[in-house]
Write a structure and sequence with these properties.
heterodimer, A: 253 residues, mainly alpha, 11 helices, globular, B: 201 residues, alpha+beta, Nuclear Transport Factor 2, Chain: A, five-stranded antiparallel β-sheet, 6 helices, 5 strands, 54% helix
Chain lengths: 253, 201
């Protein structure tokens, strides 16, 4: 055997030994199902639910309401309203909720996000015809801003979520998020006493706006809710777990 | 100075590294293949009467680690299951997950997907990776994170987190009370019951 061939073989054996040991190491870190020391990354998502019997009753009532009243309404609405119109309405009301996102971004100390929200509002209101077209999507920095609300602000301020609550009509919530809804209500321009400030904004217009806003958001909300309930072993628990996880993730963003 | 031995060692090392690289598919490559294959099946243009859940089953079996999914969805109680019960629970739960996954697809536009690089979520567990993706569907963007685990030479998906909602955490929340009340037989029975209900997927 020539020295160079021997060196090659030694080198190859050495290299394979290294690779083999690296692979053996990777194999050994693969968790063994029977290993009781395996960390459990799914042990932490919990919520207290002392009002479960009442919540389950409201959950049942809501499901009836969604299945027999709101779903048919949503379906009919989708049938008679062209997609661009629905999208325009969604964009309009979403743009109008700018103060909720702006104030809460600022209250959470996310000033850059508050600035981006302002930019998005300005662009969509001016170039997007009062918010009907979301032109901001063409700007990468404005396309995916995490939306803040009062409930999330309480979360960032380390207010506990409190017991889980199922609200009639609105669905899953917590005591913290229900309180947050009150904050959002006052930050929504639709509730800024428009009747006293705008001549033509009487109760009929106000009711019409609320109904259009509500009905327009129905199809999306019902689809999301259905995805959670479908094939669940216990739909009540599935929705509760999803809601809590979703809100925790929103607070982290 | 004779450099030949050093050159040969380097060459051999390079050869070994190339062999290793060819054998191991990176997590992001695995995920992209999985997503591409599922979308190709879900959005194929020719009509078929076979349920979507049945059509995507072979692909999901290839890329998902159903044993790992079931073990995590059941939680610490898994260790009290007999080998037979673990096998049965995994088989049933695979059906539930595949059915549930198939239900998430809606007719219409094919979603656009943007991938982010894989991250190691926990430095103590180097066999896990998290891969964030953004799904662009009907003008809305959704965050979908895949958790993958190395099993042998391959990376396999064990959790899908849609808008912060983990599939496994959601199942754990439902299965744990059932396990606490009636143990492994109750879990198996409830999975059988769920599968006996009609579905649309």
């Amino acid at each position: 055997m020539t020295p160079s061939l021997r060196t090659f073989i030694t080198g190859a054996v050495f290299s394979f030994a290294t690779v083999w040991s690296a692979q053996a190491q990777t194999m050994s870190v693969t968790p063994n199902p029977a290993d009781s020391d395996e960390p459990d990354e799914y042990a932490s998502v919990t919520v207290s639910d002392p009002l479960e019997p009442m919540n389950r009753a409201v959950f049942k009532f809501n499901n009836g309401l969604y299945d027999y009243v709101l779903r048919p309404v949503g379906k009919g609405y989708v049938r008679v309203t062209p997609k661009p119109v629905r999208k325009g309405i969604t964009n309009f009301f979403n743009n109008l909720r700018f103060p909720i996102r702006f104030v809460n971004s600022a209250l959470q100390g996310k000033f850059q996000r508050a600035g981006l929200e302002t930019g998005k509002f300005a662009v969509n209101t001016v170039a997007g015809i009062g918010g009907l077209i979301r032109v901001s999507d063409a700007v990468p920095a404005l396309a995916a801003i995490s939306e803040e609300d009062t409930g999330q602000t309480f979360g960032v301020w380390r207010v506990g979520k409190g017991p889980y609550l199922v609200l009639p009509f609105f669905g899953p919530s917590t005591v913290r998020d229900t309180t947050g809804m009150v904050g959002d209500h006052f930050l929504n321009p639709l509730n800024w006493n428009l009747k006293h400030n705008i001549d033509w904004y009487d109760w009929k217009v106000s009711t019409g706006v609320t109904v259009v806003n509500g009905v327009n958001s129905l199809p999306g909300a019902i689809a999301a809710y259905d995805a959670l309930r479908k094939d669940a072993l216990d739909p009540y628990v599935a929705v509760r777990s999803a809601y809590i996880q979703y809100r925790e993730a929103a607070i982290q963003k | 100075m004779n450099l030949r031995p050093i050159k040969n060692i380097l060459l051999a090392s390079l050869f070994a590294v190339v062999t290793l690289h060819a054998a191991a598919v990176e997590p992001h490559e695995m995920l992209k293949s999985a997503v591409d294959e599922v979308l190709a099946i879900a959005y194929r243009s020719d009509p078929t009467t076979v349920r979507l859940s049945e059509r995507i089953r072979p692909t999901l079996n290839k890329y998902f680690n159903f044993e790992a999914i079931t073990r995590r969805a059941i939680g610490p109680g898994w260790r009290q299951f007999t080998a037979e019960q673990q096998k049965r629970a995994t088989a049933l739960f695979s059906d539930v997950v595949i059915r549930n996954y198939a239900d998430r697809f809606e007719a219409g536009d094919r979603p656009g997907i943007t991938y982010s690089p894989a991250v190691i979520p926990d430095s103590k567990r180097p066999s896990l990776r998290e891969l964030a993706t953004t799904i662009d569907y009907s003008g809305k963007k959704y965050s979908v994170v895949y958790r993958v685990e190395q099993s042998g030479d391959n990376w396999r998906i064990y959790d899908v987190i849609i808008e912060g909602v983990s599939m496994i955490a959601n199942w754990r929340a439902q299965l744990d009370p059932i396990y606490q009340k009636g143990g492994a037989p109750a879990v198996i029975k409830s999975l059988e019951q769920t599968l006996s209900l009609p579905f649309s997927g």
